[in-house]
From TrEMBL:
It comes from Mycolicibacterium fluoranthenivorans. One of its GO terms (molecular function) is dioxygenase activity. Keywords: Dioxygenase, Oxidoreductase. CDD domains: cupin_HP0902-like (cd02230). This is Quercetin dioxygenase-like cupin family protein. SUPFAM superfamilies: RmlC-like cupins (SSF51182). The lineage of its organism: Bacteria, Bacillati, Actinomycetota, Actinomycetes, Mycobacteriales.
């Protein structure tokens, strides 16, 4: 069993994001290429974000700290601490409306057929 404090990790990644020119930082909490489940804590400084990109497949976003906006061509959703957003399976973007930390959870197929 492994235990990790997402609150402490969020503080650490926000500190890294504040010193990064991109205004963001990320840390894989669980998973990797050999796992179907992948969880990544992403820290974004207010005014920064992830530009429009393809959907990673089945995915969710849990807001740990701050305020974010998840949007696609049809709609946008704002999230605050404790909110759980289902990521649309279309091109979308994520913007930090305040210094924010989110937990991205993605399920991807693994194995020789992929």
């Amino acid at each position: 069993m492994e235990k990790i404090s997402l609150t402490a990790l969020a503080r650490q990644e926000l500190a890294s994001a504040r010193s990064a020119g991109s205004g963001r930082s990320a840390h894989t909490v669980y998973g990797g290429h050999e796992h179907a489940l992948r969880q990544t804590l992403i820290a974004l400084i207010e005014g920064h974000g992830l530009d429009e990109h393809e959907s990673p497949g089945e995915a969710t976003l849990h807001v740990i700290e701050g305020r974010v906006r998840l949007s696609n061509a049809e709609a946008s959703w704002e999230g605050s601490p404790g909110d759980h957003l289902v990521i649309p399976r279309t091109r979308h973007r994520l913007d930090a409306l305040a210094d924010s930390a989110v937990l991205l959870t993605v399920v991807k197929p693994v194995g020789p057929h992929v």
